[in-house]
Design a protein that fits this description.
Blueprint (H helix, E strand, L loop, with lengths): L7 H5 L6 H8 L1 H38 L10 H19 L1 H20 L1 H7 L4 H34 L12 H6 L3 H20 L2 H22 L7 E5 L10 E8 L2 E7 L4 H31 L6
Antiparallel strand pairs: 1-3, 2-3
């Protein structure tokens, strides 16, 4: 008979767990809900880009034609339908950071630490750092793809109504601005990092969920407060009270030496503001992520358990 020599390390070393596969299987319901939400919102935005905008634009054409004819009618239902569904779609897109933060704080991190699932993973020859890295990186990919798709579709839907629907929101309106560009992607990633930090700090599902929402709200408030100042404004001075140019975002206005002065962002500042705001939020996301690893180090010590 022959024997096969095996080292002690071969006998004792467990198979390295596939953390990504484990994560996807453990949080499969959340992935399904996220996919369904993105697909439903995408379908609504495509309807807004096409038939809902076309019907509302025709209603406004009829309304303007009827301005001096009290006996003619216009399609008011189409106008109101567009307004309602546009608001629903925009609020859904802008709610993504808070939804992701609540899930990350409550289920992704908080529940796993509370139930001991995290320590089970650490005991299967996976370091805590690798465990946290996978739990941030994999959802970040899904968040970036889903939120990026919805931001692009929202921009298409909003653009389709410009010049055709009189009540279409201006580019600088709070929810429209963020839903229209990459800032919503950055804010959703910030929500993921804020949720992870809340879970690591509190290590309990419901408290971590609440703290995650508060941290994400703080990021959003800070972003909105700084947004008008992230790109140089233009100024305009003249006698008496007047407004900033058409389609511009008036930031401030007041009297200076018997002259009225306003500062504003024209529409040409849309992309500079989008990009600088995105950079600001990504910087805050990086700080939140760094804080996650520092808190994890405090919980587990310098030496990562095997």
């Amino acid at each position: 008979m022959t024997t096969t020599a095996m080292t002690a390390g071969d006998l004792s070393a467990p198979a390295r767990p596939r953390l990504t596969r484990w994560l996807l299987r453990l949080h499969r319901p959340a992935l399904c809900v996220w996919t369904a939400l993105v697909l439903a919102a995408a379908a609504l935005l495509l309807l807004l880009h096409g038939p809902l905008t076309d019907a509302a634009a025709e209603g406004w054409r009829q309304y303007n034609h009827c301005a001096f004819n009290a006996s003619c009618t216009y399609d008011q239902k189409a106008i109101l339908r567009y307004k309602d569904w546009y608001n629903y779609a925009t609020l859904t897109v802008c709610a993504l950071p808070f939804l992701v933060a609540a899930w990350a704080g409550g289920a992704l991190i908080g529940r796993e630490l509370e139930s001991g699932t995290a320590r089970l993973a650490w005991a299967q020859s996976s370091t805590p750092v690798r465990w946290l890295t996978v739990r941030l990186a994999v959802p970040a990919v899904a968040v970036t793809v889903g939120a990026g798709l919805l931001a692009w579709l929202h921009q298409l839907a909003w653009s389709a109504g410009q010049g055709r629907i009189d009540t279409a929101p201006q580019w600088y309106v709070l929810f429209t601005f963020h839903a229209n560009g990459p800032t919503i992607v950055a804010l959703t990633l910030a929500g993921l990092a804020a949720g992870a930090l809340a879970g690591l700090l509190l290590r309990r599902t419901l408290p971590a969920l609440g703290l995650a929402l508060l941290l994400t709200g703080a990021v959003c408030v800070t972003t909105q407060a700084l947004l008008p100042h992230l790109w140089p404004t233009l100024g305009r001075t003249g006698p008496g009270y007047f407004y900033s140019p058409s389609r511009s975002w008036q930031v401030s206005g007041g009297e200076i030496a018997d002259q009225y002065h306003v500062t504003y962002h024209p529409y040409s500042h849309y992309w500079p503001l989008q990009l600088t705001t995105t950079a600001l939020v990504l910087a805050m996301t990086a700080l939140l992520t760094l804080a996650c690893f520092l808190v994890l180090r405090r919980l587990t010590g310098k030496a990562a358990p095997r």
